[in-house]
Specification:
heteropentamer; A mainly alpha; B mainly alpha; C mainly alpha; D mainly alpha; E mainly alpha; A: mainly alpha; two-stranded antiparallel sheet; 2 strands; E: mainly alpha; Helix Hairpins; 3 helices; 74% helix; CPA3_Na-H_Antiporter_D (chain A); Oxidoreductase (chain A)
């Protein structure tokens, strides 16, 4: 009777519509929808964790004609992370967007973005993915511009244009696939896909378009200004979820759709770009003047890490190693999602209470906001990849498989990345140790700090140690 | 009953912290009592096994240790009386008493120890504690003596440590003394070095005259009497006497002993300070012991007699030497007292080995060993040594005999108990003459006097008569001449006396230290400069360059980059396998 | 910033390479494919979909989810425009000729829109085309000087804009709660449901397009902007 | 329901959870924070005691958490880990009491004690780790937990010292990480087994094993302050006294040394490592560190700086013990793990007392300090004598066993190194004792603070050094007693060589 | 698949691809915002041409409805995206006009700076 997949998309959409119509009640309705959606998402993940993957045909017309929603292990894990982070962001937003004016603008767009996210993770139809990408791009760009400054408008316009270019290219790829194989469903295309010019060009177009939206190294130019100038909860969503959705799509295409077509050399190209992203992103983060710019560049670096898994995945034949690599990839994605969201929320609080987030003058604030600094620390642990964070175990598996396959250079990149990450995180944390008077109590603004703290704690401690259930989830999924 | 052995060591250790408080200082006297009790009550071969202490300690007695324990305890208890009475409540004396008892405990542990670790523990504690005794009232000269003493003791200790290690290599972690297997060359060399420093053998002796000259009377007495004999005990324990003949090592020992015997006497004669004279006589006696050991190594069959002779000689020397030092202590308080002067003369005679004295007895017992190789030159040398010792003692008597009317010029420099130049010594009135220490001293005199008659049979008494005669013939006219021409001229004090090897070493050491520091300093400077440069690099890097991403952000560049990536993707999927 | 010489050469070169591959791919895609794509399957099942026009049945029945999300995209765009700032200044009031023209054209557009909405079920037409016409009506009104293009004030406008999607979602959810499955129309009611969804959609699309043309936060009151 | 699998985990958490709670306490909830601290310490001691009793009777304790197939976090208690756990637990209790006294009125105490407990739980984690991965996990958590302690004071040079510390330990951690992963790909799951597990690997891999050994040694060498990598230790002396006591006597430095012991005995196996010629390399490195550390210590005027360099040289004794083939040298190395901890922590406590009570930071200011603070200086003397290796104190036992082990193994150059280092130790410790006891005190101390009426300084500051000094003497005197560190080290060495 | 349908599909689809490429070229190399938006719409039109071309099933047979529906949805999405982008452009213009009132920029570049 209850179809969690459809509910997961319809509920936030319904919420968005209600909030648009009744702006006065925006905060209450928003929170209600947030809670309901998270419950549905977690229920969905638990059902997938228990048995096999979920599948539901919308409109009851069967796959080639109608649209299907599917939730396998990978999708369920990402949905769970996305919804938890979104819930935390929503709680934070009730505090951040205090005024009626700003919350009226924020909540409808935010819930639309949320439903686009769930829709994208659960979609199994290529064209539907295009529509979800567009909805995601539009609402993210609109949300990003809420700060109202000129830089925000300019950055988000560039983001919107990049998004449109990317999704238009993606759509052409879908058109080609439809021309050749006459169906739009992911699984059916994957089944009937044969190496040839169509598959080749569709791969190039679709993945090329998505690389733009996933901000892989040379194409990351739009991300830092967009994420740094957005309001704190929005930049948390952008960095942790929106970029993650594009990467999830690349993965879905690379591992499922184009599994037979993909060659190791192509994987190597993406891996090298990823390595470039790690080094360039970390180096720029180290040199960044402002805290949120640092966080944005750290996202560019973490995206690099995710793409470094691709060459290894393509080179490893099916078997336990590939299973471990996939689990490690998901672990890294989840940890980064939680950590970056926590980091941005804390950075937002620091900016709000001191009026600026220039790292050099951060001293006083870092000392007087112990909870915020503690969150930055925990999130930093996850970003650097210190144990017990998921990133540590993910890097362990990544380097292990790299050495096993003889591609030892990935290990060097991981080493350099970890050191640079440590440098730029501790550059911020060092500010917290100065001679300011000791704050009386730990929490200064609970509504912002508790969700941020929980997110960061989950990233630093929770996900890493919960690797076993995640492995089961992924195993059960496919 | 064998628990008493542990008490011997434990009581002084436990009393040590208590005696720091001036009111409790009389406890120092009680410390040696358990040792005396064990001597009286315990059978000569009592042993005590303590597997849990240190690495499994074993304490025990046998013939030699019995004798050693006897005279050591006597010396310590007699020296304890002046410590308690005369040192009194001056500042720093608490610390002196603490270290005095620690040294006592170390000494007793060492004598009773039946395994190397215990032996080394006693040796180390005694060595370090003695440093504090030498340093007692402070002052520049004592500090220098202390520093030299400490340096050489540490080297000695480490040499002994390594020797024990190498011996342990063959016999497992711990084994019972005396050593059963024959140690190889390096071990013997190390033992010679380690214990030689303690005994004050010639090339290793520089610290001894300084220390005896600087230390207060009871400390000097204990140092010369009990502590230096430890080296002999060590040699007896660790060298393979009686098991195997080591001709070349034996000859080395003999020659070293001889050199030390004669040269020390020569240098001693030119000394102007009575304490240094006694110091050099101790060095010569150490040479004699090494000579005897060498002979035993040459002729293992002589070991029983040899060991007996050595132990007796050690006992005699301990008692006499400590008596002399204590006497000097008393004399410094009241130079004119006739009883003290008579006693000192008696002790001097005994030390010189005049007939009817304990010296003569010891020499007679040692005679058979000395004669055994039958080398003529050895007998001649020994005869010369005996004569020289007589002369040395005469010199000593001459030095302590105050010339009429001339105030004893060099008293100021002597480490008197009430020297004025030391800031913290109380400048109070002259303390009452310490009766009790005088009584103890007299008791010691009685012991020394009775020694030959109790132990030796009458035949031994007249030995050395001939040598005594010759010495008297040489000394008498010399003394008369000096006395008439320039009374008291022989007594001037020269600070840098001839025998001090330290005088030579110290500048070399200082030079070495200086060059090392300079070299090291420069190296340090370069390292610091490099590090500073590195960190400034870090700061300079910190400043942000113009935003490199501006060009990246312009659409054309971003555009062709994106197209490039897509084309590369196409090619790699198309071309690559 | 004048693109450097390298880029003017490089970009076309790369594009022509991609173009070549695309043409080759398209050629092989089209020729290679022997069977009918989804045409036969879709056309076969149009009768049960509750609309005779195949495109409408695909749009509002087979791939109804897509259309729902598409309306959400439209709404998102509108909300984005509103969040970027106040609306532009209205045009200066139209002269007599334009006014009379408008008074004729706007009702015509509205009737045509209604017709398109109705005919959508059988022939090409439907919610989007009708909405477009309504939007055009709004635009002409705005061009003729009316400050908010015939649209209600902000609170009602927000309801109107969200109405279409709301109707769609509510129908979907009720169907799911009734056990049929999200957006699965019972064959009997299909036609009626499609019609209601279409009318809702037309209204909100028209309102959205018109409001989007105004380009900003609708003015709360009808103050005449200088 | 046997509790065995949960004991090691409980021990690690028994200090982590109170620590986590302390973070959230306000600055002024003094009583609750002290209660939490002491409760954590006592609970841990009880648990450790229970475990020692169990291990002694051959009981197996193991908590296992499998993250992925082939990737497990294992906490197991074998003889070697129990030795280190016992040491760190006891010394943590003492240091906590000292820290409470020391940081009486200083700011940020919640933050300090939070990280302080995390640091110890990391150390205990390192001790109890059952395989190389868990070791690396806790090794890097230790880096994380100790950084805030070093930067605690907030002064510019504390910040600089912390930065240097972080640079060194992070790069070391990364090297260790890559080495461990490389080894794991070659050999599979790396559980620590008595006698090492690389012996059976095929011949071809030996080249890689040597390379990996150097990587791991570099990673561990940073924390064990082997020569080229020791730069951070003197710089980290800026930290408050309890931190430098716990870090440089127990936690950080010992973690590195413990790691090297684990690497040589339980990963490579000592015979296998010897065949590869790795032990001689380790030995040479350790020897150079010993000599270099002592030489540098000679020229340092700052008391804590001198102690820091002395730590640099002392810790390498453990590496030296591990590098000499033969059970006796191993015993020497292992027992020094405990002895050095006890003696060095005493010295640092005394240094802290001098700084806190009299404001004395330099050796040149220590004239006659024995008269003003007799008990502290007595403890300092015991510690110093122990460092030199003078018998009654524990240091002698180590020197005796190391020397003996070297002699039996025929590595005579080791004895020379021991000799030279003992002399150098004497050269830089005895002048301090001489100044303290035999020089007259100055008329006015730099910053004299009256911390207690009856005693020479606050009780919480005075008793810890005295207790640890007593421990050092007892460990020396009762070395052969059943539950002494020496007995335990012999037990470990027998099991290592026994099979 | 008769030859005639094939030819029309190829011809029409090829034109669509050409549109797409032209659109991309223009999007990348031209600076002003409105030129980029027009380029985007051309690219969209190109893709929709391909889809419609593929839907062609000969003169008599009704065309394949699915691509048509896709095109309809695609058009609406393209419209809303263009509307939002234009709103962004207007916002940047208004921002600049407040700062430099006298210059009424006509064709300002996408990041709002003037030619």
């Amino acid at each position: 009777m209850f179809d969690p997949l459809a509910l997961a998309v319809a509920l936030p959409l319904l919420g968005a519509l209600l909030v648009t119509m009744l702006p006065g009640w925006s905060r209450a309705l928003g929170m209600l929808t947030a809670l309901a959606t998270t419950v549905v998402a977690l229920w969905l993940t638990v059902t997938v964790w228990g048995g096999a993957s979920l599948h539901s045909d919308l409109g009851g017309w069967g796959v080639p004609l109608g649209i299907a929603l599917r939730a396998d292990g990978l999708a369920a894990a990402l949905v769970a992370m996305a919804n938890l982070v979104a819930l935390a962001i929503s709680i934070n937003a009730t505090g951040y967007f205090g005024t009626a004016e700003s919350s009226r603008k924020f909540w409808p767009l935010w819930l639309l973005l949320w439903s686009a996210l769930n829709g994208l993770f659960l979609a199994a139809d290529l064209f539907n993915l295009y529509v979800m990408l567009e909805l995601l791009g539009l609402s993210a760009a609109a949300l990003g511009a809420l700060t109202g400054t000129r830089e925000a408008a300019e950055a988000n316009l560039r983001y919107l244009l990049v998004g449109l270019l990317g999704s238009m290219t993606y759509l052409l790829g879908v058109a080609l696939l439809y021309t050749a194989y006459g169906t739009l469903d992911l699984e059916q295309v994957a089944a009937s896909l044969t190496p040839g010019p169509v598959a080749l060009s569709a791969l190039a177009l679709m993945v090329g378009g998505l690389l733009l939206k996933a901000a892989l190294f040379p194409l990351h130019f739009w991300l830092p200004p967009a994420h740094a100038n957005a309001p704190a909860p929005v930049s948390a969503a952008l960095s942790a979820l929106v970029v993650k959705a594009a990467i999830y799509l690349v993965l879905r295409l690379w591992l499922d759709l184009f599994d037979g077509i993909v060659t190791e050399a192509a994987g190597m190209l993406l891996g090298l770009l990823g390595a470039g992203a790690v080094l360039w992103g970390s180096w720029r983060a180290l040199r960044a003047e402002r805290l949120k710019l640092l966080a944005a560049y750290s996202t560019v670096a973490q995206v690099g890490y995710l793409f470094m898994f691709l060459p290894l995945l393509t080179a490893t034949p099916d078997g336990p190693e590939r299973e471990r690599l996939l689990t490690a990839l998901v672990l890294l994605a989840l940890t980064h999602g939680f950590a970056k969201a926590g980091f941005f929320l804390a950075a937002g609080l620091v900016q709000k209470s001191t009026g600026h987030d220039r790292i050099r003058e951060l001293g006083g604030a870092a000392q007087s906001l112990p909870a915020a600094t503690f969150t930055l620390g925990l999130a930093g642990v996850a970003l650097i990849g210190l144990p017990p964070s998921g990133t540590f175990f993910a890097k362990w598996v990544l380097v292990g498989q790299a050495i096993a396959l003889g591609q030892w250079w990935w290990a060097l990149v991981v080493m350099a990345g970890t050191l640079l990450a440590a440098a730029y995180v501790f550059r911020v944390l060092a500010r917290a140790f100065n001679r300011e008077p000791t704050p009386k109590c730990f929490l200064t603004d609970p509504r912002t700090e508790i969700p941020a703290l929980l997110l960061a704690a989950l990233s630093a401690l929770g996900v890493g140690l919960a690797a076993q259930p995640i492995a089961v989830l992924l195993g059960a999924g496919d | 009953m064998s628990g008493l052995l542990l008490a011997v060591v434990l009581v002084p250790l436990l009393l040590a912290p208590l005696v720091v408080h001036p009111a409790w200082r009389w406890l120092v006297l009680i410390a040696p009592l358990p040792a005396l009790a064990s001597l009286a009550l315990l059978p000569p071969d009592a042993t005590l096994e303590l597997p849990w202490l240190l690495l499994g300690t074993a304490l025990g007695l046998d013939e030699t240790t019995w004798v050693f324990l006897l005279f050591t305890t006597l010396v310590w208890s007699l020296a304890a009386v002046p410590v308690v009475e005369r040192l009194g409540t001056a500042a720093g004396t608490g610390r002196f008493r603490l270290l005095f008892l620690l040294a006592l405990a170390g000494n007793l542990w060492l004598i009773l120890a039946r395994e190397p670790v215990g032996f080394y523990v006693g040796f180390a504690i005694m060595g370090l504690a003695a440093y504090g005794l030498i340093l007692h009232p402070g002052g520049l000269m004592r500090r220098r003596a202390g520093r030299v003493y400490l340096a050489m003791t540490l080297i000695g200790e480490l040499a002994l440590f390594v020797a024990l290690l190498l011996m342990a290599q063959t016999q497992g972690v711990t084994w019972s003394l005396p050593a059963t297997s024959a140690p190889d060359g390096t071990v013997i060399a190390l033992l010679l070095l380690g214990l030689g420093i303690k005994a004050g053998l010639m090339p290793l002796h520089p610290w001894l005259p300084l220390a005896y000259g600087a230390a207060p009377a009871p400390a000097a007495a204990v140092l010369s009497g009990a502590m230096s004999k430890v080296a002999l005990l060590g040699w007896l324990r660790l060298l393979p006497l009686g098991q195997v003949a080591l001709p070349e090592w034996g000859m080395l020992f003999v020659w070293l002993g001889l050199v030390s015997l004669l040269v020390a006497l020569g240098v001693g004669l030119v000394q102007t300070d009575p304490r240094r004279v006694l110091a050099y006589s101790s060095i010569s006696k150490a040479g004699l012991f090494v000579l005897l050991l060498g002979l035993l190594l040459l002729e293992p069959t002589l070991t029983p007699i040899g060991v007996g002779a050595l132990t007796l000689y050690a006992a005699h020397h301990a008692l006499v030497k400590s008596g002399l030092f204590l006497g000097l202590g008393l004399r410094d308080l009241d130079p004119a007292r006739p009883l003290v002067r008579a006693g000192l003369i008696l002790l001097a005679l005994a030390l010189a080995g005049a007939p009817l004295t304990s010296g003569a007895l010891a020499k007679s017992v040692a005679k058979p060993v000395l004669v055994s190789p039958g080398w003529i030159w050895l007998d001649l040398a020994l005869m010369l040594a005996t004569v020289a010792t007589m002369l040395l003692m005469a010199r000593f008597v001459w030095l302590i005999w105050p010339a009429p009317g001339v105030d004893d010029g060099h008293r100021g420099a002597l480490p008197m108990l009430r020297t004025s130049n030391d800031t913290q010594a109380p400048v109070g009135s002259q303390p009452a003459f310490p009766i009790w220490s005088l009584a103890a001293w007299i008791l010691l005199l009685g012991l020394v006097a009775g020694f030959p008659f109790v132990l030796g049979e009458p035949s031994a008494w007249p030995t050395n008569a001939g040598a005594m005669l010759i010495a008297g013939l040489i000394a008498a006219p010399l003394a008369l001449a000096i006395w008439r021409r320039a009374p008291g001229s022989g007594r001037r004090v020269r600070r840098r006396s001839l025998g001090d090897l330290v005088v030579l070493i110290e500048p070399i050491l200082a030079a070495q230290l200086w060059t090392g520091r300079a070299l090291f300093g420069r190296w340090n400077a370069t390292v610091e400069a490099a590090r500073a440069h590195l960190y400034s690099l870090g700061e300079r890097v910190g400043s942000p360059p113009p935003d490199p991403e501006r060009t990246l952000r312009a659409w054309p560049t971003a555009g062709w980059l994106w197209l490039g990536v897509t084309v590369l993707l196409l090619l790699l999927v198309l071309v690559a396998p | 910033m004048k693109a450097s010489r390298l880029q003017t050469v490089l970009i076309p070169l790369l594009l022509s390479a991609i173009g070549a591959v695309l043409f080759w791919a398209f050629w092989s895609g089209v020729t290679g494919h022997e069977g009918e794509r989804l045409a036969a399957l879709a056309l076969a099942r149009v009768p049960e979909s509750g609309a005779s026009n195949p495109v409408t049945s695909v749009l509002l029945n087979f791939r109804a989810y897509d259309t729902l999300m598409e309306l959400a995209v439209l709404l998102a765009a509108l909300l984005g425009i509103w969040s970027l700032g106040p609306a532009a200044a209205p045009y200066q009031p139209a002269a007599l000729l334009l006014n009379s023209l408008v008074s004729w054209v706007v009702p015509m557009l509205i009737i045509a829109g209604g017709y398109l909405l109705w005919i959508g079920g059988q022939a090409p037409g439907g919610a989007f085309q009708a909405g477009a016409l309504l939007g055009a009506a709004g635009v002409t009104l705005a061009l003729s000087g009316r400050p908010n293009a015939g649209l209600p004030d902000e609170s009602w406008l927000r309801v109107l804009a969200a109405l279409g999607t709301l109707v769609f979602v509510l129908i979907g959810l009720t169907l799911m709660f009734l056990g049929l499955g999200f957006l699965t129309y019972p064959p009997a009611l299909a036609k009626a449901l499609i019609l209601t969804i279409e009318t809702g959609a037309t209204l909100s699309i028209g309102a959205t397009l018109a409001a989007a043309f105004l380009g900003g936060q609708p003015r709360a009151t009808r103050t005449a902007e200088p | 329901m046997n509790l065995d699998p949960y004991l090691p985990l409980a021990i690690v958490l028994s200090s982590a959870l109170p620590g986590a709670l302390i973070f959230f306490l306000g600055e002024d909830s003094y009583r609750l924070r002290t209660a939490l601290n002491l409760f954590g310490a006592l609970l841990k001691i009880i648990l450790v005691g229970w475990m020692i009793w169990g291990v002694f009777h051959g009981h197996v304790y193991e908590s296992r958490l499998t993250l992925m197939p082939g990737l497990e976090l294992v906490l197991s208690a074998d003889a070697l880990s129990v030795l280190f756990v016992a040491l760190s637990t006891v010394l943590w209790l003492v240091t906590t009491i000292y820290a409470i006294g020391y940081l009486e009125h200083s700011p940020n105490r919640s933050r300090f004690f939070g990280f302080f407990s995390l640091c110890v739980s990391a150390t205990v984690g390192i001790a109890l780790s059952g395989n190389l991965m868990t070791f690396v996990v806790f090794y890097e958590i230790l880096t994380l937990a100790t950084y805030p302690l070093v930067a605690h004071r907030g002064t510019p040079d504390a910040d600089h010292g912390a930065k240097v510390y972080l640079a060194y330990t992070m790069s070391g951690g990364v090297l260790l990480f890559v080495g461990a992963v490389w080894l794991q790909t070659l050999v599979g799951q790396l559980t620590f087994t008595q006698g090492g597990l690389l012996g059976a690997a095929p011949e071809a891999l030996h080249g890689q094993f040597i390379l990996i050994f150097f990587l791991l040694l570099a990673g561990l060498g940073v924390k064990a302050a082997l020569v080229p990598l020791h730069g951070w230790l003197p710089q980290a002396m800026v930290a408050p006294a309890p931190v430098s006591a716990l870090l440089h006597a127990v936690a950080v430095v010992k973690a590195g040394a413990f790691g090297i012991v684990r690497l040589v005995y339980d990963v490579y196996g000592v015979e296998f490592a010897d065949d590869l010629g790795l032990l001689t390399v380790l030995g040479v490195l350790a020897a150079t560190t010993i000599i270099y550390g002592s030489l540098k210590a000679l020229s340092q005027d700052g008391l804590k700086k001198r102690l820091a360099y002395s730590t640099v040289s002392q810790v390498s004794y453990i590496a030296l013990g591990a590098s000499v083939l033969g059970p006796i040298a191993t015993i020497g190395g292992l027992v020094h793990l405990v002895h050095q901890g006890i003696m060095k922590i005493t010295l640092f406590f005394c240094a802290g007392n001098y700084a806190e009570t009299l404001g004395v930071h330099k050796v040149s200011e220590m004239n006659g300090i024995g008269r003003r603070m007799p008990w502290t200086t007595l403890a300092f003397t015991v510690g110093a004598l122990g460092m030199i290796g003078i018998p009654p104190v524990a240091g002698f036992i180590t020197k005796w066993y190391l020397g003996l082990g070297a002699a039996t193994a025929g590595a005579y150059w080791v004895i020379v190194v021991l000799l030279v280092s003992s002399l150098l130790n004497a050269a830089y410790f005895l002048p301090i004792l001489y100044r303290a006891w035999f020089r007259p005190p100055p008329d006015q101390w730099p910053e004299e603070a009256v911390l207690s009426k009856r005693l020479e300084t606050a009780p919480a500051l005075l008793w810890p050094p005295v207790v640890t000094a007593l421990l050092a003497v007892v460990a020396g005197l009762l070395a052969a007693a059943p539950f002494s560190p020496l007995e335990w080290a012999t037990l470990i060495a027998e099991r290592e060589y026994g099979r | 698949m008769s030859h005639e349908i094939l030819i029309t599909q190829l011809l029409y689809g090829g034109a669509g691809l050409l549109f797409f490429l032209l659109g991309v070229w223009s999007f990348i190399s031209h600076e002003p915002l409105w030129r980029k938006l027009i380029a985007l719409n051309i690219m969209g039109a190109g893709v929709f041409h391909v889809l419609v071309a593929v839907a062609y099933r000969g003169l008599d047979a009704p065309p394949d409805p699915v691509p048509h529906a896709l095109v309809l949805t695609g058009i609406v999405v393209a419209v809303s995206a263009t509307a939002l982008a234009l709103a962004f452009g207007r916002r940047l213009d208004r921002e600049d006009s407040e700062r430099t009132p006298e210059v009424q920029g006509v064709d300002d570049r996408e990041d709002g700076t003037h030619v």
